[in-house]
Write a structure and sequence with these properties.
Layout: E1 27-31, H1 38-53, E2 58-63, H2 64-80, H3 87-97, E3 99-105, H4 112-127, E4 131-136, H5 154-163, E5 164-168, E6 185-188, H6 191-199, E7 206-212, E8 215-223, E9 226-230, H7 231-236, H8 241-250, E10 253-259, E11 262-263, H9 267-282, E12 286-291, E13 300-301, H10 310-316
Parallel strand pairs: 1-4, 1-5, 2-3, 3-4, 6-12, 9-10, 10-12, 11-13
Antiparallel strand pairs: 7-8, 8-9
Helix pairs in contact: 3-4, 4-5, 8-9
């Protein structure tokens, strides 16, 4: 996992030292619909490089949400330690120490804090010899679409297209559906069946508290590697990718109760739900859902504004 430490030096004998690279290697930005094979190919590349050059200090792969959370945490920790000056170069050097080939899965920008720091961080990484391999459901020009202060983010898009070859892998086939069944379940208007599923899990029901970067995340109902959560608690309240990744890492199955039909005016709730599903899927966590709607595709009703909002695009690719 990429961990932006505060170390600021690397062995000078390495070809991937912290001095600027005279011949930077151009990266890849692979975009396409869900299930088209982007993550599979990137993981294959990452593992191949690890096999050839060793598991550490050459290549690293991480979910982009997790990377950004770790980045903000490292910047905050450095500032709190009394560090004087710009923390971005020092934190970025720590990233480079763990591998110059950076593989990011699910590259996306939904938060203004991320949008404002990304260009500075990536410029430092690129200028010091990093190669970026990224997968995304979006083309570069669609990143942070309709976002707050997007005009400050747009220059990064041009940098990204210059530093990476953009590859379109869009496909009408969702190859995830060709894999062995993940065991996901969808209960439509059947809270009784949903609760029965949980009751039949072996073990004693308990509450659990997870540590999310120094904050407490309460899970009120847990049993046998399963967490049962309420949709409103995790999507209508201020939760984020850090909470969802912690949930996916702690449990092998997450049960979500009370998923409603969402409309365009629920865009903040919808965005959280999209990030939740994305984080759980990246953690290979199974999903069991109880909803008033018949199928996952019916959760979001865009109404008359169909095609005009970023949330519509995001949901279509979830």
């Amino acid at each position: 996992m990429i961990s932006p430490s505060t170390a600021s030096s690397a062995p000078s004998s390495s070809a991937w030292s912290l001095s600027p690279s005279p011949t930077p290697i151009r990266g890849l930005y692979i975009h396409g619909s869900v299930g088209c094979g982007k993550t599979f190919l990137t993981t294959l590349l990452h593992k191949s490089l690890q096999s050839k050059y060793g598991p550490t200090n050459f290549t690293q792969m991480v979910h982009f949400n997790e990377f950004m959370l770790s980045l903000h945490k490292s910047v905050h920790k450095l500032k709190k330690s009394g560090f004087k000056g710009d923390p971005v170069p020092k934190v970025s050097d720590g990233i480079l120490k763990e591998g110059r080939i950076l593989c990011f899965d699910e590259f996306q920008v939904t938060d203004v804090a991320d949008a404002l720091i990304i260009r500075r961080v990536f410029t430092h990484l690129w200028d010091n010899g990093a190669t970026v391999i990224a997968t995304s459901n979006r083309t570069p020009d669609e990143l942070y679409k309709d976002g707050l202060q997007r005009e400050l983010f747009v220059p990064f898009i041009e940098d990204l297209k210059e530093r990476c070859e953009v590859v379109d892998m869009d496909s009408k086939v969702d190859y995830r559906g060709l894999k062995v069944n993940r065991g996901d379940k969808w209960y439509h208007d059947d809270d009784k069946g949903f609760e029965m599923f949980f009751d039949n899990i072996e073990g004693e029901e308990e509450k659990r508290t997870l540590d999310v970067q120094g904050r407490e995340l309460r899970i009120e109902r847990c049993k046998g590697g399963h967490a049962l959560i309420e949709f409103d608690d995790f999507c209508r309240k201020p939760k984020g990718a850090g909470d969802y990744l912690a949930l996916g890492e702690e449990f092998n199955t997450v049960m979500i109760k009370g998923v409603p039909r969402l409309k365009i005016e629920d865009f903040n709730v919808l965005r959280r739900f999209i990030v939740l599903i994305d984080c759980l899927y990246s953690s290979e966590c199974k999903l069991v859902v109880a909803s008033e709607v018949q199928a996952p595709k019916d959760v979001f009703d865009p109404g008359v504004e169909e095609g005009e909002r970023d949330e519509i695009f995001s949901w279509d690719r979830t």
